[in-house]
Each structure stands twice: as C-alpha cells, then as structure tokens.
Write a structure and sequence with these properties.
Layout (H helix, E strand, L loop, with lengths): L3 H7 L7 E2 L1 H14 L8 E2 L2 E2 L2 H10 L3 E2 L2
Antiparallel strand pairs: 1-4, 2-3
Length: 67
C-alpha cells in the first residue's frame, strides 16, 4: 500500500494535470500509513494538507484538476 504516492508525485509529468479519484484514495491510504514520519509542512491537523480536496474526489468520484 505504499505505492499510493506515485500517482501524485508523477501527475505533474502528465499533460492532463488530472489525478483520478482512485489515485486520490490510494494516496490517502499511503499517507495514513506513513504520516508519523513525514514533515509537518505536509500536514494540517495530522492529515494531508490537501485532505479535504482528496476526500471530496474520493466521495464524488470526480478527478482533481491541477492548473
């Protein structure tokens, strides 16, 4: 379950700038596993700083668009 970071890290190399909801779900699972070892700059209230956006994507099934 540690491969959830790859889609987020590599999304900037894609021309579309889209992160699919399944990738957001996998990212959040991986983040939860390793969050105790990550820098505080990536967290807000012990969650990923973009957690609300990622959760919305997981809930709705809509992709995240990065501009």
């Amino acid at each position: 379950n540690l491969d959830g970071f790859f889609s987020f890290i590599l999304h900037s190399n894609h021309e579309t700038g889209i992160l699919h909801s399944s990738d957001a779900r996998d990212f959040l699972k991986t983040f939860d596993i390793v969050k105790d070892y990550l820098d505080e700059e990536l967290k807000f209230n012990d969650e990923f700083y973009l957690n609300d956006i990622f959760q919305e994507s997981v809930t709705t099934g809509e992709p995240i668009h990065f501009f």
